Amino acid sequence: MKKRLIPLILGLALPYSAAQADTIFGVYAGGGTQNFDFTGDFEDDSTSGDIDLEDDLNLSDESGTYVYIAIEHPIPFLPNVLLTSIEIDQSGSGTVTQTFDGVDFSGAVDSTVDLSHTDATFYYELLDNWVNLDLGLTIRKFDGEVKLVSATEGTAQEDIDYTIPLLYGKARFDLPLTGVYVSASGNWLGAGSNSFLDSMVTVGYESTIGLGLEAGYRNITLSVDESDFEADMGFSGIFAAATFHF
Length: 246
What we know:
Blueprint: H1 2-12, H2 16-19, E1 26-43, E2 51-52, E3 61-72, E4 80-86, E5 89-96, E6 99-100, E7 103-104, E8 107-114, E9 117-128, E10 131-142, E11 144-150, E12 154-160, E13 163-174, E14 180-191, E15 194-206, E16 211-225, E17 230-245
Antiparallel strand pairs: 1-2, 1-3, 1-17, 3-4, 4-9, 5-8, 6-7, 8-11, 9-10, 10-13, 11-12, 13-14, 14-15, 15-16, 16-17
């Protein structure tokens, strides 16, 4: 039994230097649309009351764009690089009767929830054959906001403008001789009562000339418990993209 297992283990767990034989230098790029369904709530402290994204602000779903490019190289000990930009931005009109950011709302409001961000991911290929495994670190830069505007009470805004590190992992399985692949990837951070998870499941096809298509499901959940802002929100939906590998 042990003799049969050894070749299998060696075939999957290729050393990093040997794995580069499959990809001396590669560039992977893609772009497409993502449909997000907004759920959850937020508040500025534990006494002001929750503001629900669906029931109070009438936010339901919205399409956004995303693009990415990954550069893989054979240089030992230096990580590969993946750059990603995604738009998560929706505006709506609803009714709020809670306090937010010091403003007492008591009627109709226009709202904006924006979690758009840019990622720089540095990762290593631990496996690179029909089974691919990447592990690394993502630096995510948010450039968004949560804003409520009332014609009578005024404007309240909580900026979401910060940079956080996230653990990164991706597993991909290529179906031999078909060009079809299935992958699962995610970014995660957890610290005390604050947590963030961004996960994706993808099915794709790559032609012999490098052009391809992929589609899947993405789910983002975040939980924030700070003295001046609390949130428990989710953003999820399907996505589709055109891809190119050369």
